[in-house]
Structures are given as C-alpha cells and as structure tokens.
Amino acid sequence: MTDKVDQYYDVALSLVKTCGNLISEHINGCKSFVLKSCDIDLVTEIDKKVEDTLVGGLSKAFPDHKFIGEESVADGTKCELTDSPTWIIDPVDGTMNFVHGFPHSSISVGLTINKEPVVGIIYNPILGQMFTAKKGQGAFLNETQIHVSQVKEFATALVTFEAGTSRDPERFKAVMENYKILVSKGHGVRTLGSAALNMAMVALGGADAYFEFGIHAWDVAAGTVLVREAGGVVIDPAGGPFDILSRRILSASTMELAEEISKNIVQFYPERD
Length: 273
Ligand code: IPD
Hints:
alpha+beta, seven-stranded mixed beta sheet, five-stranded mixed beta sheet, EC 3.1.3.25, hydrolase, IMPase
C-alpha cells in the first residue's frame, strides 16, 4: 500500500507544482471573477484551469480514481465519498485573497482511501511554501520536517479562524460570538483567508489551533493529513471524531487544547456536503 500511495503522491506533487505557476503568474493585478453561492463566494478562470489540469492529469495516471473538486461540485457534480481512492481538490483555496493579490492562496490536494485521508499537499506558490504529508511518514515544509507546537491551554494559544464565504445570519452570529471568545480568552486570533493555509500553520507550530463552521471537504482534506502527521489532532468542534463531509472542523496542536476550545466555543451545524 505504501508504494502505491508514494506513486499517487509523486504524480499529484508534480501536477501541483506545474499548476502553481498559473497562480503565481497571475497574482498581480485585478482578476475578473464570477459569484457562486453569494457575493463573497468567488471563482476565477484560474480556479477552473487549475482544477481541470489536476483532475485531467490524475485521471490519466489513475483512471479508476474518483474526484471531489470544488469547482466541479459548484458546476453540479455530486459530492460523493466512497472507499475508492478519491482526490479531494481545492484548486485555489483563498480565492478572495487571489482576486485581491493578498499573497495567501494555495492549491490543496488531499487523497482519501477507504474514506481516510492519507495524502495532503498544500502549496502556496506565491511564497514558495510546499507543505506535504503522507500517512505514517511525517509532515514537511519544503522537505524539512515540521511539528505542531506543544501548547495545551487556550489562554496561551494563537488561534486561526475565518469569517468564511457565506453571509448566512445564523452562521454569522456564531462567527461573531466565537471571535469575541477567542479575543477575550486566547493569546490572539489570525485570519489568513485560506483554510488549508490555516491548517498548515497549525502543522508548522506557527498557530496552535484552527476551527471553522461552513468549510467544505476540499478546504480541509489535505490539511487533516498535514496536522495529524505533524503530531496534532483534528476533531469535530463539539468533540468526537472528525467527519470530512460535516463542514465542521477543529484542529489543534494537542488534544488538551482542542478539548478546551471545544468546550468554550459556540457551535454551528451547517448542511452537510
Ligand atoms: C475558502 C477559504 C476561507 C474559508 C472558507 C473557504 P475558497 O475557500 O478557505 O478561508 O473561510 O470557508 O470556503 O472559497 O477560497 O476556496
């Protein structure tokens, strides 16, 4: 199995590197975009090109593999996770950043086998940050092994958090409440505008936790492998096992920290993927 996963990873990594050029070559200047679910959920021509290149290349190499891609799902493809090897792809995670030229966008590619995340690649080509992980083989930034921090207490945690890409009033209420809780109880809050890069920061030990309600499988599939392989935990924000299609995630450097954050935050339950 490891040999096969290594082979899947090698092909994906090479495609991700190639697609990175599409993002870095177009980062400067105004990008035209169209709206998806609402006025802050954007897609550009580059999102579509990257997804087409990744899906095209991976399906040519592995014809029996399945795909869950952000833009294909937006265009009506069913979001279905089976036991087959499934590539879960966000072609540009942080599309809003990309549109504005804020240099925190990434290609996020995860692979699940038997529904379990086993490969994670998160690439920010603008800053040259390639985060990679394979189950059981550690997590890396540009080939140097990375580890989560050892922070166990909310009071000393730097937490990454997002307002998200929907203006749903109920979710917004939870976001605002949680922002207040984070600011008043933790060390600080950071918002990178890319779920995948927030998780990469937890894996790197630069942030101690990240949670969000309303994300999709493609935002967090790769990050899940990365955080776990860096020694951290990924759970449901209310405690209990992480469910990749639940649109809820809490990742942290330690289980102690995850549990304390979980007890303190306001919960929100979006419709499943
Ligand atoms: C979004 C980003 C953002 C997060 C949203 C995601 P996209 O992904 O990861 O940080 O808050 O929930 O949808 O739309 O830029 O691919």
